[in-house]
Amino acid sequence: MKLSELIKCIDVLQVLGNPNVEVTDIQFDSRRVGAGSLFVAQVGTAADGHAYIEQCVAKGAVAIVLEKAECIKDDGVCYILVKNSDEALGRMAHCWYGEPSKQLKLVGVTGTNGKTTTATLLYKLFKALGNKVGLLSTVVNYVDDEAVAATHTTPNALELNALLSRMVAKGCTHAFMEVSSHAIAQERIAGLEYTGALFTNLTRDHLDYHKTFDNYRDTKKILFDRLGKEAFAITNLDDRNGLVMTQNSRAKVLTYSTRSMADFRGKILEEGFDGMLLRVQSTLGAVNTEVFVPLVGRFNVSNLLLIYGAAVCLGEDAMEVLRVLSGVQPVNGRFETIHSPKGWTAVVDYAHTPDAVENVLRTINEIVAANAAKQSEPAQVITVVGCGGNRDKGKRPIMAKSAYQMSTQLILTSDNPRDEEPHAILQDMAAGLTAEELRHTLIIEDRYSAIKTACTLARRGDVILVAGKGHEDYQIIKGVKYHFDDHEVVKECL
Q: Which of 59, 62, 237, 298 has its CA 20 to 30 A from that of 487?
C-alpha cells in the first residue's frame, strides 16, 4: 500500500519526505522492522519508540510515524508527524486490514467485572442461533470455530485488526469483544466502528495505571462517546456510573436492571448452585416470562439481561434468545462449581477485585442460607484469595476485609506475585484486618497448600471459594510462568 493512501485515515501535522513510497508492513516493535516497513514510534510506559528510530531506518524502514518533531532527520526516509502515535497506529491498522469493523456487526463490552462472561456467552448464543461469529476475550479468541490464543483482554491494534480481518474472510457476520480500559487509553481500538457497546459495572481496578477512579471511569466512557448515531448502547441502571457512561452518547441508549424499571429487567425467583429460575421482562419484544438458566448469582442476572438486550438490539427473536440462554454453560473460571463426594462444594472464580469477591460471596451466602434447613449444622464458607503483584496495591486491604466479613474462614494466599515478594503482598492484604480478625485468619503463602487446607477443613454442606485466578492455569513468580490450575488442585482433594 502507498504511504500516501495509508495516512489519509490519520490526522497529520506535518509530512517531511516523499509519501509516495510503497509500505510493506506496519510495525511498532523495532525488532520486527524490515525493508519497506512503516515504523510507528510510540511513547510507552516502559520504553519510548522514538529512541529506536535510527535503528529502524538502518534496518530498511521507509517511513516513520512519530510524535516528537526533534527526532526528525534528513535521511531520505519519510517522516509523518502526528499528535498521538497510538491513535495513528490504531487508525492505520484498521485501514491496512481493509476496515474490517465496517463489515461486521461489532459489539464491544466494557466495565470492571462481567466482560468475559458477557462477550463469551454472546458468542455462544449467536453461534447457537446459526451465525458465524468472532470473539475477542481475556480467555481465548475465536474466528468462528477456530480458537486463537489470547495474551491480553484486548489485543494490540495490529493483532486486533488482523483478527477482525480473519473473521470477515471466514464469513463471520458478528463479533463480540471485551474492551479494556488499557485498550481505550492506548488507542488500540481507534478507527473501529461499533454496532453496539455494552456496560457491565464499574468498581475500583487498575488504579496503578489510571491513578484515579475518575480517570478510570472517564476512559471507559470514551467507548460510548465515540459511538455513531446508528449504534446502540446498553447500560446498567444498578450501577451509579451507568448513566454517566452513556451521557452525551449519540447512540440509541437502552437500560437494564435487577432492581428498577428499565428496558430489560430480571428477578431471581429460585436459586441453587446448579442454576436459577428468573423472571425476564423487556419493552423490546414485550416479553414477560420465566426462564431457568444454569448460571448463578445476581451479577449473572445482570450479565444475562445485557446479553439478552444486545441480542434483541441485533435483531434476534426475543423468545428464541431466551430458549438458547436456558442451555448456556458457565464460562471457564466464572463461578464454576465442583462438587465433592464428601458433600462440600468448591467454587472457582476469577474474582480479583473487592466488588467481584463481594458479589460471589454474597451469592454463595444466599444459597447457603436458602439451604440451611437441610443442614444438620451451619455450613461454613471458606474463602481462599490473594492479590496479583505489580498491580493496584490499594485494593489489597479492601479485598481482605471484604472476604473476611463474608466468610466463615478466610485463607490469604499468593495469586500471581509477578515481580513482587509474595509475603509483601500478603502483608498489604493483612493490613486491612484488625488484630482480632487476623487471629481468625490463615495466611498460607503457597497457593497449593492453601487450597489443600481449605479442602481439608471443609465438611458436608460447606462451600469453598477459590478466588482470583479462575481460567488461568499458571502462576507468574519472579517473571517465570509456572503451571498452576485451581481446578486441578481442588479435584485432587475430592
A: 298
Tell me: do 270 and 363 sit in the same domain: no
Q: Which of 325, 346, 371 is the C-terminal boundary of a domain?
A: 325
Burial group, residue 123, by CB count within 10 angstroms (0-12, 13-18, 19+): buried
| 316-338 residue pLDDT tens | 999 999 999 999 888 888 899 99
CATH number for 363? 3.90.190.20
Q: Are 286 and 194 contained in the same domain?
A: yes
Do 309 and 363 share a domain, yes or no? no
Q: Please report the beta strands in 239-380, taking only residues with DSSP state E, as ranges in sequence order.
A: 252-257, 264-272, 275-282, 287-293, 336-339, 345-349
| pTM of the model as a whole | 0.85
Instruction: Name the band, by pLDDT with cuts 50, 70 and 90, for residue 214.
Output: confident
Secondary structure percentages of the chain, helix, strand, coil, to 5: 35, 25, 40
* Average pLDDT rounded to a whole number, residues 282-288: 86
Q: Retrieve residue 427's grid coordinates.
A: 502483608
Please count the structural domains in the chain: 3
Residue-averaged pLDDT of the chain:
94
C-alpha distances in Å from residue 68, one per residue of 4, 15, 53, 65, 146: 20, 13, 11, 9, 41
Residue length of the chain: 494
One domain, residues 278 and 174:
yes
Within 8 A by CB and 6+ apart from 8, the residues are 95
The 10s digit of each residue's pLDDT in 129-148 is: 999 999 999 889 999 999 99
Residue 220 has pLDDT above 70, yes or no: yes
Q: Which residue range forms the structural domain that includes residue 207?
A: 97-325
Instruction: Return the C-alpha cell found at 143.
Output: 474466528
